[in-house]
Amino acid sequence: MTNDSSHVLGHVPVFTGLDGAALDALAAFTFQKTFQPGEAIAEAGEIGSGLYVVLNGRAEVIEAEGTDHAKVLATLGVGQPFGELALLGEWKRTATVRAAERTTCLGLDRWQFLAHLQKEPAVAVKMLQYVAQRLINNELRVAAGA
Predict the structure, then answer these.
(1) How far is the C-alpha of 123 from the C-alpha of 23, rounded, in Å?
(2) Quick one: pLDDT at residue 62?
(3) Concatenated DSSP letters for 107-126?
(4) What span, in angstroms and rounded, lies between the C-alpha atoms of 125 and 50?
(5) Which terminal residue of the chain, N or C, has fewer Cβ atoms less than 10 Å from its own Cβ?
(6) 101 in helix, strand or coil?
(7) pLDDT tens for each residue of 81-131
(8) Which residues, 6 or more positions from 114, have their beta carbon under 8 angstroms from its beta carbon?
(9) H or E element that contains 46
(10) Using CA atoms, how far apart are residues 83 and 89, in angstroms rounded to an integer?
């Protein structure tokens, strides 16, 4: 599973550009979990525990689920990640991600990831760059009135 997991992680924007050894080291901490149609993978308001990448199937990102204002924000397919920022801290998820069909995800737990960052500064630098880029993108959207 490590080589396949390394390949999958290498396509996640937060890890793009890491060398094979760094990806293999991260892949050693991954797990796979399968979700049935309609099952929540991550729930809004809950503390996120880490990153997921869709390996097969589809998942929907839903805002305000369970209200009259529920809205599908995105449909995630094979190779698409979510929950990257949950790798860094205990923040509440802002949307629910629910399996639209039988869906298998590759997961990476925050606690193992944080312990790994202490030994691998290159991964920490890459993560900081990713977070900084997201902040810049958010500022640009706010400035544009989106």
Answers:
(1) 9
(2) 96
(3) EEEHHHHHHHHHH-HHHHHH
(4) 18
(5) C
(6) coil
(7) 999 889 888 999 999 999 999 999 999 999 999 999 888 888 888 888 888
(8) 87, 88
(9) none
(10) 11
H or E stretch at 34: strand 30-35
Tokens 């308001």 locate to: 45
What distance in Å separates the CA atoms of residue 51 and residue 71, rounded to the nearest whole number? 22
Tally of CB atoms within 10 A around 6: 21
Distance of CA 108 to the CA centre of its chain: 8
91: tokens are 């923040």
- Quote the tokens at residue 78: 């094979």
Domains and CATH numbers, the chain: 2-143 (2.60.120.10)
What gap in Å lies between CA 25 and CA 120, rounded to an integer? 9
Q: What single letter denotes the amino acid at residue 141?
A: R
Instruction: Give the separation between CA 49 and CA 87, rounded to whole angstroms.
Output: 7
pLDDT digits (tens, 9 = 90+) for 1-58: 557 999 999 999 888 888 999 999 999 999 999 999 999 999 999 999 999 999 999 9
Tokens of 13: 């924007």
Contact at 8 Å (CB) between 96 and 55?
no
Quote the tokens at residue 47: 């503390």
